[in-house]
Write a structure and sequence with these properties.
Elements lengths: L1 H17 L27 H5 L31 H17 L4 H17 L5 H16 L3 H17 L7 H21 L5 H7 L3 H5 L1 H14 L3 H9 L5 H23 L3 E3 H7 L5 H9 L7 E2 L7 E3 H8 L1
Antiparallel strand pairs: 1-3, 2-3
Helix pairs in contact: 3-4, 3-5, 4-5, 5-6, 6-7, 7-8, 7-10, 7-12, 10-11, 10-12, 11-12, 12-15, 13-14
Length: 318
């Protein structure tokens, strides 16, 4: 009898010691695990694995997988577990940095990774890394729609790790992006309150972060139509701040060119506009001035620097 009691006590202790320690991946948020010995490989669905509050983990081992919109509950054999997704994300980041894959290829793989994480309710560091990488790739390729999908989820994920120092710079980086994106969104929104909302949501940590400080200065320069300060800030922009600032660049250039043509007569040197309007070189400036959007009237004489006819260019801009 004593031996039996001793055995039961030991069993209870072992259960307590190992409770919650079984892990199929670093961030699966399910209290129990499930064995699949009674389910034929590839036939069980993720929903069936979740039955009874059990952990649902995929079994697919492919590093690359085509993205397909889910129209029904996926099979476990179609979903990759976190350990495989970690390797898949590392592969995508490698191909991104080496420029071996096109943007469409990168986007498909990142969407596929995000989908597999979502199906498994993964909300840990791996999910944070996946959404951060996808957001940066989208910004690099001017895909604001894809970026916005990522930033919405990232805001919640970063709040989840608000006290973890290792995510501090990422929290600052993406807070800055949200501010600059909100400025863009407000230009096409009827309410125009997204920037106001994002500014209210800034934490004390965000406000003190250099990335956010830069974004706030950029926003002030846009609101004040201070083109000189705007392009100076764009040259020193951290991370992808400059990509979001670029969305305001041509509008600010148009306003500045109109003001310059109104206050300078009869001509303006193109070289002066290169510096003032934030272009890298005179060729870029000429391309901008000759674009259909601007249609500036130019005076080009052989052997002489090109000039802008202020009066006629002002008429073309109005």
């Amino acid at each position: 009898m004593d031996e039996d009691l001793y055995s039961k006590q030991n069993k209870k202790k072992r259960e307590q010691r190992f409770k919650g320690n079984e892990q199929y991946g670093e961030e699966i948020e399910r209290p129990r695990s499930v064995t699949r010995t009674d389910s034929p490989k590839g036939e069980v669905t993720m929903a069936e694995l979740k039955t009874g509050n059990k952990r649902a983990v995929g079994t697919n081992q492919s590093l690359t997988k085509a993205y397909m919109r889910l129209t029904s509950d996926p099979k476990a054999s179609d979903i990759r577990p976190p350990a495989v997704l970690k390797k898949a994300l590392a592969l995508v980041e490698e191909k991104w940095k080496s420029r071996e894959w096109t943007y469409d290829q990168l986007k498909e793989q990142l969407k596929s990774i995000r989908q597999d994480l979502t199906v498994q309710h993964a909300k840990g560091p791996l999910a944070v890394s996946a959404y951060e990488t996808h957001a940066r790739v989208a910004l690099e390729h001017d895909d604001l729609a894809e970026y916005n999908q990522c930033q919405t989820v990232l805001k919640t994920l970063h709040e989840r790790y608000i006290n973890e120092e290792k995510f501090k710079d990422a929290r600052g980086e993406f807070a800055a992006y949200r501010l600059l994106y909100a400025l863009i969104a407000d230009e096409t929104s009827r309410s125009g309150r997204q920037l106001f909302t994002e500014m209210i949501d800034l934490t004390e940590e965000n406000v003190e972060h250099e990335f956010v400080k830069h974004a706030l200065e950029a926003i002030v320069s846009v609101k004040a139509s201070d083109i000189v300060k705007f392009f100076k800030l764009r040259k020193t922009a951290p991370n992808y701040n400059w990509k979001l600032m670029q969305k305001h660049a041509n509008r600010m250039r148009g306003h500045a060119l109109l003001a310059l043509c109104s206050s300078h007569r009869p001509t303006l040197p193109v070289s002066f506009l290169t510096n003032t309007l934030g272009f890298e070189n005179e060729d870029e400036t000429m391309e901008y001035l000759k674009s259909d959007e601007i249609s500036a009237v130019l005076i080009e004489k052989k052997g002489e620097p090109p000039l802008v006819d202020c009066k006629n260019t002002q008429t073309a801009l109005l």
